[in-house]
Write a structure and sequence with these properties.
This protein is mainly beta. The two termini are about 20 Å apart. Belongs to the universal ribosomal protein uL24 family. This is Large ribosomal subunit protein uL24. Keywords: Ribonucleoprotein, Ribosomal protein, RNA-binding, rRNA-binding.
């Protein structure tokens, strides 16, 4: 299986949609579904009826999964979106930002 280019804990930039340009940290990655959950981005609201467990009811807000193709890793140098490639450094496979050549720790 190929290594993932976006991993949990990475800082990413949203490329399209209502949250275009926002940055956030990856909270969860689902490679099988091709989805990613980013903290503070793609907030969805779910209206809940009052129940015995939650007598108040109300609106639950949560981060919804979004397609992995809509986000790009933020360049460690300037924070702008960049593609990722893999290189071998000191016998280890590391992720490198294409724009700046900086290694991405993750």
């Amino acid at each position: 299986m190929a290594s993932a280019k976006i991993k949990k804990g990475d800082t990413v930039v949203v490329l399209s949609g209502k949250d275009k340009g926002k940055t956030g940290t990856v909270a969860k990655v689902s490679p099988k579904d091709g989805k990613v959950v980013v903290e503070g981005v793609n907030i969805a609201a779910r209206h809940r009826k009052p129940t015995q467990q939650n007598p108040q009811g109300g609106i639950d807000r949560f981060e919804a999964p979004m397609p992995i193709s809509k986000v790009a890793v933020a360049d460690p140098k300037d924070g702008k979106p960049t593609r990722v490639r893999f290189e071998e450094k000191d016998g280890k496979k590391v992720r490198v930002a294409v724009k700046s050549g900086e290694t991405i720790d993750g």
